[in-house]
Amino acid sequence: MAYLAKLRVWRGDAGSGALTDYKVEVNEGEVVLDVLHRLQATQASDLALRWNCKAGKCGSCSMEINGMPRLGCMTRMSTFTEEETLTITPMRTFPVIRDLVTDVSFNYAKAREIPSFTPDPSIKPGEFRMQQEDVNRSQEFRKCIECFLCQNTCHAIRDHEDNEQSFSGPRFLMRVAELEMHPADEADRRNIAQDDFGLGLCNITKCCTEVCPEHIKITDNAIIPLKERVAGRRFDPLVWLGSKISRRPEPAGTPAVPGKR
Amino acid sequence: MATNDTEIERFSYDVVVIGAGGSGLRAAIEARARGKKTAIISKSLFGKAHTVMAEGGAAAAMGNVNSKDNWMVHFRDTMRGGKFLNNPRMAELHAKEAPDRVWELEAWGALFDRTKDGKISQRNFGGHEYPRLAHVGDRTGLEMIRTLQQRIVALQQADSYEFGDPDAMIRVFAETTVTRLLKDGDKIAGAFGYVRDTGKFILFEAPTVILATGGIGRTFKVTSNSWEYSGDGHALALLAGASLMNMEFVQFHPTGMVWPVSVKGILVTESVRGDGGVLKNSEGKRFMFDYVPDVFRAQYAETEEEADRWYTDPDNNRRPPELLPRDEVARSINAEVKAGRGTPHGGIYLDIASRRPAEYILSRLPSMHHQFLELADVDITKEAMEIGPTCHYVMGGVEVDPDTAASSVPGLFAAGEVSGGMHGSNRLGGNSLSDLLVFGKRAGDGASDYLDALGETKPVIAQADLDAAVAEALEPFSREVGESPYEVHAELQQTMNDLVGIIRREQEVKDALAALEKFKERAKALAVPGERAYNPGWHYAQDLRNMLLVGECVAMAALEREESRGGHTREDHPDMEPEWRKVNLILTLDGDTIEMVHQPIPVIREDLLDLFDISELKKYMTKEELAGHHEAAALEEGH
Lengths: 261, 639
Known about the structure:
Chain A is an alpha+beta fold. Chain A is 34% helix and 15% strand.
């Protein structure tokens, strides 16, 4: 049952690199990560790649397999024919460090800009009461394993470097949605979602949802409802009228956290 | 950079936490809360630590589902699970403080599954008398690590406002490995290592180090553990002069995947059984009824009917034997397979499909469903899973003071899996996540108190020690041709699996020790091609030293302890011996030699002893030990 698979693996660093051809043994039931490990152990001990759990739970082994953003540990070799040549490249959106390892620090910087969970300070630990139906929505988003495949695939980042400043990407717009829908959170992140995190740049092509290994409905359940909340606040005629009649100025919402941009 | 570049980037911190899983992050949060400048060192990216793989939940006697639960019941269950070898003070602190630590996570944004009245839901698990595990489906570890990660971000945001720099007081050094702890005399003075991305050396000058490096599973071939679990903290502690204890106790989780071969060992959560799944052999028999040991006889059902009633009426029925502590279940599975009643791929069946509706399985066990469907083409709502034991956890670890998590080396602390004592000879499922939180916080406090007492005196790192650490790290680059770290590691894993695995025999463990000597020799002649930047071969070479040290500790203690208890089963000494219950095996390093001594276990305080019925205790303890129990007189009279 074992056969030799033809792999073309991108080898190199930030300066330069090229696809390198290998032939590696494949056994029944194996995933791409198994084959890369065998390549490391037998032919290329310095092949750089990230991995941890090998069970689709940690989101470390993100890569592009035949151009598709995938987790190496969840991509079965049986989905390819024995004759096919597999092209394995690093995530294209992020700067290469070495081989299949990329610099994903952009994501950690964006995470720091979103105002954190802000509960009512008078509620003591142990006193929170929330219904399951009210936590379901945010729980879906908290399934995120931060593999950053959605960030990698989103064309608003992938093809537009200039958006790096103004666009947080699907993972972090989803984090904003998660906090906005958290039943115990009190901050208002709607303005900054639009103004600081670039919600408007998303034109709902759903590429992020397609590549999500956790099958989170990022666009339908997080981004579109977030857009509706923002629109409700900004463009609802009654809200607009209320803000004109009322003497109180409209609250500006919670500001973004100053980050290291 | 050139492979022989010796340049070192230097940092200065109050507290250096090595490891960014549950215990490391909780320790760092506490140290930061105490005003200490804190570094978190992570071998992986931030948020990827092994805690992420914990599935079932965090055990805490909140009493949300069954109001009879309290810390005393939890304490009892923990001691029973560990076969009374646990450090009783640790088990006490853990049981008392776990609820507060879980509630705290909720105040930091965690979203646990809920009860009908809106509290944190709790689920059943092996060895726990009441539903006790706070959980989020079967991805509780992910929720915990993300919550702690986001709490650290929240603290950094506060520092961003206060100091204009999010890294001012707490900084994460991702993809950084520590290879040596450095001392000034007998005191900790810092930690030396390298940044994986660049291969550059890095030095942390710090009077306190908290080890939170997790376990040793990568020493074994079939394991649920990731590459990070190479016993780094265990080895760093030994090399720094601290002592390890109970290293013979290694937990083989009863349910790991067995097929396809490439996923062999990947964890299948105990929640499958907690939520109604049962174990069957190839003849379709629920065999666990045949394996209930005497010490647990009173608490477990004797018929399938009673066991099935327990799920809906736990007050009037006893628990199903599938929910015995992990050591018992793993041994039973092993015995069934050996008796020729295994599955085609050498496991046994774990069946929830025929016992619960698909909708229930999908809501309670979504990630198990996903894992089997994607990796094994098995739909667990329709078919049984094939499972078998997998190396999962080490009960042994750094010997620490229960209240402060301090090791025997001043300034060195340890929390979580890398520490020893809490779980005795066997850990209950769910007690790890809570352990991380309780003792992570205590380690952060312990290190802060130590710093406060230390005052202005700063330990100094000797240049000679630093030079030696640099030379050691660069050694594998010094030869063109040599042993491959991958090959030596693969052989080590096979040896530990075959000879010091779930069932041990004297001669086999001796063979393992002889093999380890040869591996140590080969590890002195490693060669790693390539550059310094992100070179996994070089990284492997560093980890190998730790795995060899830890493997030797496990084998030595396994040979010494001539009884079977918890995570240590000797085929040639199959019984639990009360005399051995009084002994902890303590390991230290003297030059290149590991030394082992017998040390009496701490005495169980009388008020804690009184939480048990004396008829149960006498199964474990000698008469002299029971003298303090309030029913001791009755025992004396022969009642």
